[in-house]
Design goal:
It comes from Punica granatum (Pomegranate). It is built from three helices and seven strands. The strands form three sheets. Strands 1-3-2 form a three-stranded antiparallel β-sheet, covered by helices on one side. It is an alpha+beta fold.
Length: 141
C-alpha cells in the first residue's frame, strides 16, 4: 500500500451468482467492523474475476504456530493475555458491533498474533450476520 504498511492479501475462490449479493453485503459490514482484537480488513476487490481481501499483516503468525512450536513457548501471563484478547474480540462481535457477527470457526489457526503479542480474530469466511432482532442462528452439518 502507498502508506508503507505491511499487508496480507487473500485471493478468494469464485462466488456463485446466488451468493454475490450476500458477499457484497458481508464485505460492506465486515469492512466497517473495527476492534483492536479483530484483524482489520483494509480493502477488498468486488471484481468477480479477481476477488481479493487486503488485511493488516500479523507478524507473529497464528496462535497455532505459537502453541505447537517448541521454540516459541508462551508463559502463563502471555497465554492469559491471549485468552483475554480473544474474549474481548468475541464480546465485540456478539454484543457491541452494529450488526452482530457469529464467527463459527474459532480455532488456534484463526487467531493471529501481532508484533506486540496481541491476539486478533481472523478468517470470517464461515461467519453469520445476525439481524437486529435475531437471537440465534443454525449452522448445521
Amino acid at each position: 500500500m502507498s502508506t508503507g504498511q505491511a499487508i496480507a492479501v487473500e485471493r478468494l475462490e469464485r462466488v456463485s451468482t446466488d451468493g454475490e449479493r450476500e458477499f457484497r453485503t458481508e464485505m460492506l459490514i465486515i469492512g466497517r467492523t473495527h476492534h483492536r482484537n479483530l484483524v482489520s480488513l483494509l480493502s477488498y476487490s468486488l471484481d468477480t474475476s479477481n476477488r481479493l481481501l487486503v488485511y493488516e499483516y500479523m507478524s507473529n503468525r497464528s496462535l497455532a504456530d505459537l502453541l505447537f512450536a517448541p521454540e516459541k513457548l508462551l508463559c502463563w501471563e502471555e497465554k492469559m493475555g491471549i485468552v483475554r484478547n480473544i474474549a474481548r474480540g468475541l464480546l465485540y462481535l456478539h454484543e457491541e458491533c452494529e450488526t452482530q457477527i457469529i464467527h463459527c470457526d474459532i480455532k488456534p489457526g484463526n487467531i493471529l498474533i501481532d508484533e506486540n503479542r496481541r491476539a486478533k480474530i481472523s478468517d470470517f469466511g464461515l461467519s453469520k450476520l445476525l439481524k437486529p432482532d435475531q437471537t440465534n442462528t443454525f449452522t448445521g452439518i
